[in-house]
Design goal:
Layout: E1 2-7, H1 11-23, E2 26-31, H2 34-43, E3 48-52, H3 60-67, E4 75-80, H4 84-92, E5 97-101, H5 105-119, E6 132-135, E7 138-141, E8 146-149, E9 152-153, H6 158-169, E10 174-176, H7 177-185, H8 195-207, E11 217-220, E12 224-227
Helix pairs in contact: 2-3, 4-8, 6-7, 6-8
Length: about 230
């Protein structure tokens, strides 16, 4: 069973989520302060973390920043409804997704499953060599979920890796924005949902430009994104 750590000081919400997630075959663990949650994440093994922004001792954004210094574990942030600044900051710090409170437990489960599905190996692939994509100085390996530029690890989050993988596999062709959102976030974007934009911005910053300061990922306004082949 997948193990989920919930870092939230709302004990009633934690109990509700425990019942709901147990019905979906997830095992849940809890921490009710930022310090306790960070300690558990550092010393124990979990498949995913649900992290509230408003926490005693150490707030969720500080916890997330610390987690990202030693782990790529998927993180879903819980934010106050309408607080766009916390959402954007969370995504910029490496959160995989967010949900504004109050939220539907069903929606949370859908987000969890979408994230964990991306991490599930494809057992139908019997090739002895790991699948990889290489364009110029960027090398991506699916089996180990790693991407390098010039041999140096880019330090991508799972969502950033998934975006890069989809774009590199379709290099030279436009990937539609909503199609990409479905593949990497597991949902279509609402008109005011900036999640994909923030992840894309983080990815571009980590990739840097090519020789001659040419962009690697082009935005095709009103359509989507294109990973540029060297000859383009």
């Amino acid at each position: 069973m997948k193990q989920i750590l919930i870092i939230d000081d709302d004990t009633e919400l934690c109990e509700l989520l425990q019942e709901y997630l147990a019905a979906e075959k997830f095992t849940t663990f809890f921490a009710h302060t930022g310090v306790a949650g960070l300690e558990k994440t550092r010393n124990e093994s979990f498949d995913l973390v649900i992290l509230d922004v408003m926490l005693p001792e150490l707030n969720g954004l500080e916890v997330l920043k610390s987690i990202r210094s030693f782990s790529k574990i998927p993180v879903i942030m819980l934010t106050a409804k309408g607080d766009e600044i916390d959402r954007i900051l969370g995504l910029e710090l490496g959160a995989d997704d967010y949900l504004p409170k109050p939220f539907s437990p069903r929606e949370l489960v859908a987000r969890i499953k979408a994230i964990l599905r991306r991490l599930t190996p494809d057992h139908g692939d019997t090739s002895p060599e790991p699948f990889h994509v290489e364009i110029a100085d960027v090398y991506l390996e699916s089996n180990t979920r790693t991407a390098t530029r010039g041999g140096i690890d880019l330090g991508l989050t799972e969502v950033e890796f998934c975006i890069l993988e989809n774009l590199m596999r379709s290099a030279g062709n436009v990937v539609e924005r909503q199609d990409l959102a479905m593949k990497v976030l597991g949902r279509r974007l609402a008109y005011d949902d900036r999640s994909l934009d923030v992840h894309m911005s983080n990815l571009r910053r980590k990739l840097g430009s090519t020789n001659g300061d040419k962009e690697r990922i082009k935005t095709i306004r009103g359509v989507g994104y294109l990973y540029v082949k060297p000859e383009q």
